[in-house]
Structures are given as C-alpha cells and as structure tokens.
C-alpha cells in the first residue's frame, strides 16, 4: 500500500517515537519514506486539506 501511495506522488512519514519504541529507528526504510517528528507531523496536518492515516 505504501509503495502505491509513493508511486502516485504521496508523501509517507514515519513516527519517530513509534519507530524507536519498536527498535526500527535504524532499520532500512522503503525508498521515499522518512522518519519524522511530532512537531513536523503537527505542522503537516495543520497545513493539509486532507490527511490519511493507517
């Protein structure tokens, strides 16, 4: 599903706290995704017309 979103130009950011809690902070990511912060997520949501989470 993530690859389909990325292929259509969607942006995928991963919760840094969630990744760290699961030991994934240094794991290889799907190309085009990135680890994010709560501050960045807050700004991203506030600036968006639509947000999809899963």
Characterization of this structure:
This protein is an alpha+beta fold and 54 residues long. It has one domain (2-47): DsrEFH-like (Hypothetical Protein Ychn, Chain: A). It is built from three helices and two strands. The chain has helices spanning 2-7, 16-21, 38-47, and strands at 12-15, 33-36. It has a two-stranded parallel ribbon. β1 (12-15), α2 and β2 form a beta-alpha-beta unit. The longest helix has 10 residues, at 38-47. The mean pLDDT is 88.
Give a quick precis of the structure:
This protein is 41% helix and 15% strand. The protein has helices spanning 2-7, 16-21, 38-47; strands spanning 12-15, 33-36. It is flat, with a radius of gyration of 12 Å.
Series of H and E elements: HEHEH
Q: Gap between N and C termini, in Å?
A: 10 Å
What is the highest CATH level, the class? Alpha Beta
Q: Mean pLDDT, rounded to whole units?
A: 88
Structural class: alpha+beta
CATH-assigned fold name: Hypothetical Protein Ychn, Chain: A
CATH architecture: 3-Layer(aba) Sandwich
Strands of the biggest beta sheet: in what spatial order? 1-2
From the alpha-carbon coordinates, what is the Rg to the nearest angstrom? 12 Å
- Per DSSP, what share of the residues sits in E-state strands of 2 or more residues? 5-15%
Number of helices: 3
Measured as a percent range, the helix fraction is: 40-55%
The description of the largest β-sheet is: 2 strands, parallel
Kindly report the name of the CATH homologous superfamily.
DsrEFH-like
- How many individual domains? 1
């Amino acid at each position: 599903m993530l690859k389909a979103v990325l292929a259509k130009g969607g942006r995928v950011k991963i919760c840094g706290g969630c990744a760290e809690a699961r030991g994934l902070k240094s794991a290889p990511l799907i190309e085009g995704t990135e680890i994010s912060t709560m501050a960045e997520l807050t700004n991203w949501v506030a600036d968006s017309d639509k947000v999809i989470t899963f």
